[in-house]
Design the sequence.
DNA sequence: CTTAGGAAACTTTTT
DNA sequence: GTTTCCTAAG
């Protein structure tokens, strides 16, 4: 068995798998078999060292990575370890078990707010403070950054920031109260409260520390401060820590990632370092381009630079083509795909874009050429208005404290309950929105509509969790939702009704499996863009960020133009520009055999033609073509 | 007080 | 191309 686990690993990978007794950081270049090392390490610990699988904790960046790791381990071991999850979903597990020990209003059935939900709450608060709601995004960023740095008082932390950030301290406090009253947590809260729970409560900390013999962390370069704290709290005195990462694939500093956590990990845990430099993914020519880009990275980790090499003899294909405009660029891509499709499945092809709006030009051309495609980023199924409306209804029925859901649905379909009426309702709120609607001062007409709303919601309260499908069907007819769609959306109402029926199929399946509605909501909220990549035979269009950790035989990188890649916003800031370069590196290294780059001299932006300049990156790599 | 319709403003990247 | 903002009419 030992041979089977270590078989097929190169000496560097083997050393990383076999290393025991001290924390270890493995610096793993793109395509160097990082996931392989992680999975084989877990298999090795179980088979060779006799660790019990449920005592191993592995933390990944996306759910997709977690699932992939789980699949591979099941293939090697035929055992399913329990604790392979993302930072967020791990924290949800901690909180579902122990949140009541936090001494707050939260209970175990708390709901998770996505970005839209939390912005909705935040906008209300800004209005109350007489601040322009345009600032909701800024306020959210300040609050989010504050939570990520983990201070015991968010209010004090924000107050001490330089103006204008400091002006959001009261807003942050009101936001915190509002979410707690709604029994709701946003993405940052999940980690923040888990860390608070573990750091303030020694018994709970001891309990969780005692559960794991070994902790492994993937994509360490993209962890942030609070995630580092979480690892520290979970590790305790344990020396059995293992992390992998790559400075040059750090692409989330704008979201609080701290690549310096790698150095901190080595210093604070006394970790040893190893490198994986052999690439098993790409051809020599593709790696040549990647290495050129990396060699130009100017940063203080340049001593960590990894020069990737391969003994892959395949020629592969790389090409760059300049176009007059975005339409001819898309046409060129479409024709290339048509030719490739004679011997390559569509699902082996990906188009990686810097900004989501770039997908539109591609979409219209692909439709004309009959090329099956799917867009991974952008408006996903669960972001569609009609789906969010109905899920908010179900959420509200299940939890009448849910403020974001309440605000979304109270006037959908139109009940004549507008801004003024909602603010009246808010005034009579104690701990349940249904009671607030009942108590609020309303006009006779509004009262009539509001009472009907209350009656409908109450009639499903006992059935929503166990019978979400039946509830949805009843609800849609009770509130006349299809009529609402026909009235609001006219010509594309048919598509939207179709979406609702798709949702009902999903819920029907759920109901047949006997899975509760609350669990379904959680799975969808914590799913990443990557998780939505279907297995169907289609060309995938996705952002470079969403492509992290993935690979395809054929990769297109269109719109390699100044102001797009690197993006206009990064130009004023040296470290942002460095991140763009790393992102370009990530893009190139997704390709296994064929890499096609292109740019256009003009492109539609904001519905108007803009002239574009070729990206600086093209100059740097042009000797490769 | 609400709603409809047109004008203005806006798009990095997302767990 | 799309969301949100603003104003005037119901």
Sequence:
């Amino acid at each position: 068995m030992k041979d089977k686990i270590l078989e097929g690993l190169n000496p560097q990978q083997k050393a990383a798998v076999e290393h025991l007794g001290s924390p270890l950081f493995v610096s793993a270049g793109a395509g160097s078999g990082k996931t392989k090392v992680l999975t084989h390490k877990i298999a090795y610990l179980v088979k060779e060292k006799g660790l019990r699988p449920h005592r191993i904790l592995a933390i990944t960046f996306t759910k997709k990575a977690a699932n992939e790791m789980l699949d591979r381990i099941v293939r090697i071991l035929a055992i399913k370890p329990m604790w392979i999850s993302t930072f967020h979903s791990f924290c949800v597990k901690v909180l579902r078990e122990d949140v009541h020990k936090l001494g707050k209003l939260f209970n175990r059935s708390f709901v998770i707010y996505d970005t839209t939900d939390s912005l909705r709450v935040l906008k209300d608060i800004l209005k109350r403070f007489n601040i322009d709601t345009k600032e909701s995004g800024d306020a959210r960023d300040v609050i989010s950054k504050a939570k990520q740095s983990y201070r015991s008082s968010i209010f004090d932390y924000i107050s001490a920031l330089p103006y204008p950030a400091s002006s959001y301290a009261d807003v942050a406090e009101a936001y915190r109260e509002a979410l707690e009253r709604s029994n709701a947590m946003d993405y940052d809260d999940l980690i923040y409260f888990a860390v608070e729970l573990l750091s303030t409560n020694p018994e709970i900390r001891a309990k969780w520390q005692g559960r794991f013999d070994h902790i492994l962390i993937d994509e360490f370069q993209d962890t942030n401060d609070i995630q580092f704290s979480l690892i520290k709290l979970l590790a305790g005195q344990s020396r059995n820590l293992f992390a992998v990462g790559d400075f040059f694939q750090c692409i989330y500093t704008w979201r609080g990632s701290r690549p310096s956590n790698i150095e901190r990990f080595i210093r604070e845990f006394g970790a040893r370092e190893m490198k994986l430099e052999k690439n098993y993914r790409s051809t020599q020519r593709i790696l040549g381009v990647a290495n050129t880009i990396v060699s130009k990275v100017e940063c203080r980790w340049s001593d960590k630079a990894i020069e990737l090499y391969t003994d892959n003899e395949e020629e592969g294909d790389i090409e760059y083509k300049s176009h007059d405009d975005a339409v001819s660029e898309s046409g060129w891509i479409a024709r290339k795909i048509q030719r490739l499709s004679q011997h390559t499945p569509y699902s082996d092809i990906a188009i990686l874009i810097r900004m989501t709006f770039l997908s539109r030009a591609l979409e219209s051309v692909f439709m004309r050429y009959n090329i099956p495609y799917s867009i991974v980023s952008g408006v996903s199924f669960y972001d569609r208005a009609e789906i969010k409306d109905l899920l908010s209804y179900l959420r509200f029925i299940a939890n009448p404290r849910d403020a974001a859901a309440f605000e979304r649905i109270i006037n959908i379909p139109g009940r004549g309950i507008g801004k003024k009426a909602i603010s009246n309702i808010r005034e009579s709120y104690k701990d349940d929105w249904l009671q607030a609607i009942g108590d609020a001062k309303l006009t006779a007409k509004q009262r009539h509509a509001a009472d009907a709303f209350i009656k409908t919601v109450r009639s499903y309260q006992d059935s929503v969790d166990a019978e979400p499908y039946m509830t949805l069907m009843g609800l849609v007819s009770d509130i006349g939702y299809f009529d609402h769609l026909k009235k609001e959306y006219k010509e594309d109402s048919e598509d939207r009704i179709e979406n609702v029926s798709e949702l009902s199929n999903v819920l029907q399946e759920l109901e047949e499996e006997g899975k509760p509605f609350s669990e379904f909501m959680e799975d969808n909220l914590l799913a990443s863009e990557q998780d939505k990549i279907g297995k169907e035979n289609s060309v995938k269009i996705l952002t470079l960020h969403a492509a992290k950790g993935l690979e395809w035989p054929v990769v297109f990188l269109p719109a390699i133009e100044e102001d797009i890649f690197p993006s206009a916003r990064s130009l004023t800031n040296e470290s942002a520009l460095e991140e763009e370069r790393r992102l370009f590196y990530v893009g190139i290294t997704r390709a296994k055999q064929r890499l096609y780059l292109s740019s256009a001299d003009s492109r539609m932006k904001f519905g108007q033609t803009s002239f574009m300049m070729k990206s600086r990156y093209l100059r740097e790599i042009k000797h490769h073509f």
